TrEMBL record:
Gene behind this protein: queA
UniProt entry keywords in alphabetical sequence: Cytoplasm, Glycosyltransferase, Isomerase, Queuosine biosynthesis, S-adenosyl-L-methionine, Transferase
Catalytic activity, reaction form: 7-aminomethyl-7-carbaguanosine(34) in tRNA + S-adenosyl-L-methionine = epoxyqueuosine(34) in tRNA + adenine + L-methionine + 2 H(+)
PANTHER family assigned: S-ADENOSYLMETHIONINE:TRNA RIBOSYLTRANSFERASE-ISOMERASE
The protein, known as: S-adenosylmethionine:tRNA ribosyltransferase-isomerase
Organism: Antarcticibacterium arcticum
Role played: Transfers and isomerizes the ribose moiety from AdoMet to the 7-aminomethyl group of 7-deazaguanine (preQ1-tRNA) to give epoxyqueuosine (oQ-tRNA).
Amino acid sequence: MKLSQFGFDLPEELLAEYPAENRDEARLMVLNRKEQTIEHKLFKDVLEYFEPNDVMVLNNTKVFPARLYGNKEKTGARIEVFLLRELNAETKLWDVLVDPARKIRIGNKLYFGDDESLVAEVIDNTTSRGRTLRFLYDGSYAEFRKKLEDLGETPLPKYIKREVQPEDQERYQTIYAKKEGAVAAPTAGLHFSKHLLKRLEIKGVEFAEVTLHVGLGTFNPVEVEDLSKHKMDSEEAFIEEKAVLTINKAIKERRRICAVGTTSMRVLESAVSSNHTLNEFSGWTNKFIFPPYDFSIANAMITNFHTPKSTLMMMVSAFAGHDFMKKAYAEAIKEKYKFYTYGDAMLII
């Protein structure tokens, strides 16, 4: 398919600036692929669509406060630094993005914090915006990581124009987040409350946890009309034996297996065996899913509403069917569903 087939007009007021007051009371659109029907519910109603021994696949990655602000030596210019990934724990090397409007060269130093107690030196250019920083810190590694967390800010996406608020630290994190490493939240999971998870558990729904550390590459714009020529950035992912056993049992029993979010779906589809069951996985994936595509593991999906021409929307279109997805998105805009990170949700069955 072509990039232009995923364009649509999205009114700016439908981009969610704030989360729903209660996690599980966001709106939920339910798409039935077989019946080609659309229902309008609240997220907590997701309980109605699952039976005992069905499986929900959760991405347990944890967002770290990746946005820092430093002052450039000599000029004192304030520069935004976005931590992407740690390259070497011992030498405190990090890949970062810097404000493209600022000139920052190899050898420049940045000072962080009011007391300038954390210093970093630019040691390499990686892309037009990318740099490699070496943090100069004499304390232990644990102290260094604590310092980064204290100075860092919750990395809300740029479309949210307001200042980061204290509640964002909690709400831009799933309640089951465990393994730190993401620079963006797996947003479909933000709708689950502790109460809803407990109700699903009481009903007999099983949970399988996987890990995919979401990077900014997921949100990079597609710049080629021919989708087969687009290259995704790699993201680190893990599937352990416990999840494999739970999911493969559900496949054998023909249960409903629901990928919670595009990130869960991507890691599942990166670890498919030759007989269409799930393998353990530890490594990096740059899997790009767009129509037409045959999914091997999940037969249901929970996701948010995505922006035009995004790789996320393309994956969901592959799962729901492109024409049905266009119809659902037109309905969502008409009914004023909220889109993107803090927006409403969709269940596709």
